[in-house]
Amino acid sequence: xxxxxxxxxxxxxxxxxxxxxxxxxxxxxxxxxxxxxxxxxxxxxxxxxxxxxxxxxxxxxxxxxxxxxxxxxxxxxxxxxxxxxxxxxxxxxxxxxxxxxxxxxxxxxxxxxxxxxxxxxxxxxxxxxxxxxxxxxxxxxxxxxxxxxxxxxxxxxxxxxxxxxxxxxxxxxxxxxxxxxxxxxxxxxxxxxxxxxxxxxxxxxxxxxxxxxxxxxxxxxxxxxxxxxxxxxxxxxxxxxxxxxxxxxxxxxxxxxxxxxxxxxxxxxxxxxxxxxxxxxxxxxxxxxxxxxxxxxxxxxxxxxxxxxxxxxxxxxxxxxxxxx
Length: 325
What we know:
Elements: H1 12-36, H2 48-73, H3 79-103, H4 113-124, H5 132-143, H6 157-160, H7 177-194, H8 198-203, H9 210-220, H10 222-244, H11 246-265, H12 270-286, H13 290-295, H14 300-317
Helix pairs in contact: 1-2, 1-9, 1-10, 2-4, 2-7, 3-4, 4-7, 5-7, 11-12, 12-14
Domain Heparan-alpha-glucosaminide N-acetyltransferase catalytic: 10-231
Protein name: Heparan-alpha-glucosaminide N-acetyltransferase catalytic domain-containing protein
InterPro entries: HGSNAT_cat
């Protein structure tokens, strides 16, 4: 039976799995971008089915991080190789933070996928050598509390990277230690258990055909692909959205629908609600408050503008509000 050496620790089957995972992640990002910029109506950001899809992809991706740690360093840490890859991941995480700080300052990424992977790579090293049962126990301890414990303290950004929030902070990407380091540990445990029998068999599998080879190639270069795919998607989608006006149209439709439903639920007639909501839409546009309202982060001055606009719109359907007492 073939042996898995340190020099041949890369398995084509694992590369293919990693290639599939990174393509799935890119497909989610594509759909999120299309939703955010108004090309599709599916609620990719909040629909439970889309959330499940995104989290499933993330779980597989982090599981494969654990697999890669065992394959690359399970017989002894190859420090030069480890630090070279770690620095690449860390630099990518830093680039994402800086890039999103300038493009989305209210929702910039401060602990996203790459930030988590950089930390998890370091935290995972001891678990390559401790008893497997101990790694499994810690994996359970990382995953299970997430489902039973939450505290408002972790809503704040300085603590949110740990997990356990009641309401997640506003950011475009957040991958907390609990429970996601558990996914890495599950990958480590599974690979260590599979090392004697299953991995040597996987080592004999060689991709044949263009698609498996392309997936294996993508898996080997998954990190560069991850770094460039969103800028490429946005470089295509954003100009199209600006040209076609899709984002503005979607926002206006969503706002009017939500406003109308809320207004009518409060007992106001449909006709009056239409007047009120149209007025609110015009105020948001004139005061350039769309992005602020959607992000949920407004300055006191912006909140004052929003409140004043609401009062003016209320006065259109209840003129007595403008009369002096």
